[in-house]
Amino acid sequence: MLLSVAAALTTSANEATDSITSYTEAQLDSLITSLNEVTVTAQRPLVTKEIDRIGYDVQADDESKTATLSDILRKVPLVSVDPDGTIKVKGSSDFKIYRNGRPNNSYSKNAKELFKAIPASSIKKIEVITDPGAREDAEGTSAILNIVTMSDLQLKGVTGQVSLSTNSKSHWAPNPNLYITTQINKVILSAYGGCFFQQGDFCKDHTESRYVYDETGNVLTGKSQRRYPGGTGWFGIDGSYELDSLNLFTMEFNGYTYRINQHFDQQVDLTLADGTPGMSYRALTTYRPITYFDLGGGINYQRSTRRKGETITASYLLATTRQHSDVTEEYSDKVNASFDYDSKLSNTRANFIEHTLQLDWARPINAHNKFDTGTKYIYRNNHSYSTYDYIPTASEYTNFKHTTQVGAIYGDYRLNVKRWNFRAGLRFEYSRLKGHNIDPEEPAFCRSLRDWVPNASISVNINDENTLKISYNERINRPGITYLNPAVNSSPVSVSQGNPDLVSARYRSINLNYSLIKSKINIDLTAGYTTSTDGIVSVQQAINDVMYSSYANVGHNRTFNTNLYVQWSPFEKTTWILNGGLYYRYFKNPDYQLSHVMAHGWNGWIWTQVRQKLPWKLTASVSFNTWKSGATSAYSSLKSYHPYYYSLNLQRSFLKDDRLTVTATAMNPFGPKGEHNRAYSFNQGRDGYQDSWSSYYQSFQLQVSYRFGSLNASVKKTASTIKNEDVVGAKVGK
């Protein structure tokens, strides 16, 4: 299309030149002026497609010059952002986040705050890897969100962005952030850091619950209020050194920490079936405090050969985590209590370390064929130590260690034939899980797993604008320490423990995708089906008015999903975006203590925005988000009473090159003020619900950011890097 326009302009210019001799001098000057004003403009498509992923070209978005990564993320197909900043892919928070293809602890632990600090101008594109293939780990979820930074190297100097944001709900506490990049000869360094203070209504909620036990008919009610003020911080450094055109070294180092003082006030009452009072007590729980700190880093070496596109990459990744909580539970106003202690003191320390080695080889056979192969080894060591003092009656402790070793090898093949693209891969993984309590009376456990994981995709470019794709994908999830640890954790009304006999869960999915990419409109439509018959799920049962819970590979889950993304620019300065999904979910846990444990229903969400550029460097936007909650497991479903929020946004740029940007946002200025959800429980020996209220909907936000420097460079990236995405139930922290 662009070639046709250019040819037409060239022809017109040639025809005009041929007839110059027939013009007067004044006419000639007028003609030259007209020709000088001839320009060719073309808009880069914002959405791009590959056979295994959807990409959003951040640099093609005019807003990237002044926006943050969080602002841009709402526009990415299949991605949604909740009112509190929680990011979801395909309507689920069960996905992984990477930076340049590598896991990043700071991103994973605090993405909703960190992404508000990173300038979009430093991001090249955002990828949603919808069909992870053999190159990616067989372990993990069915989607990966990959943040790709800029890699162009043009000038020497320093550039960056400093910003300060504040919010009425946090009592206008300032939250500073810094992002900076510099180049010294062949060395490029990027650094970022920031902090967030959690205060006011952002860290308050309260709940009310009512449950009826099937066995006795007794009614358990509860009320609670919670405050959890605190602060979080993060930092990172990335570097690259290009020895020559064939040898590239890269490194990264990042950290994340938080400290939260949580206060929990709970009233519990048990009423007998005949209406007479039963047990009751009040519990005051104080965390002094919860502290969390992780450090991670990695190095990569990439060797390119004389064959174009052929690379050999060696990588090493280190990740460490330390967590400590000191908890005091005080019980008062006890009536017919089933326990004889007045307080409980808990002290828990958890440590985690992971080493990963990986070797990848990518080789194009010719212009139409490409083959990738590689191998990987992971060693994980988890150690948790807890002491429990029941005053004045007894004391106990747990000392649990768990190690996981994973070895993998894969092969991935891609073929391009005219408008057709094919991809197929196979990955084999061997894993060995071992755990034991230091207490010799507790049995140790050891398990070996072998998994073959295939995948395949076919796409066809119907024409230059329309693409159709079908794909099949398998994934596995290994249980983490939380799910495996057999140590018992009890309260007066509940008892829970892990299950050391768990094995990997396997998920199979098939998806059909259609995309239309034009200069003024992009449409992406996906329909898919995912199933699992051995999912790791919670199994629960009430006995004698006490809820017992553990985990088992008995989850039968099926999900039918559709996702629609539309971006339309009807006018030069107007953009409309629609991003949404609709899901039918079916959960069943057959033949495990209770018969026919099942739940199902529809879930969905829609986010839409209209953005308008105005005179005087002003930009205004209106956003609206709504959702429908439904079944969340075989034992629960969720209903939202205020399932919508909206925002009004006004942005103004100042100074040369729009270096200073001020953004004001009003969230739900006309109400509602907060969120009200009801979580239903059933199929577990008791039926009931819990209502929860939080007040973070309505707020007013202000952000000021300043860009400095003129360097157009970012840390280079190796073509292949480490990705770990396997563990479920292993997350430590909030």
Protein architecture, described:
The chain has 734 residues and is mainly beta. It contains five helices and 40 strands. It is globular. The two termini are 51 Å apart.
Give the low-confidence spans.
1-42, 727-734
Overall average residue pLDDT: 82
Give the radius of gyration. Answer: 28 Å
β-strand amount? over 45%
Biggest beta sheet attributes: 22 strands, antiparallel, barrel
- DSSP, total strands: 40
Structural class: mainly beta
Number of discrete helical segments: 5
Q: Considering DSSP H and I runs of 4 or more, what fraction of the residues is helical?
A: under 10%
User: How would you describe the shape?
Assistant: globular
Measured between the Cα atoms of the first and last residue, the distance is 51 Å
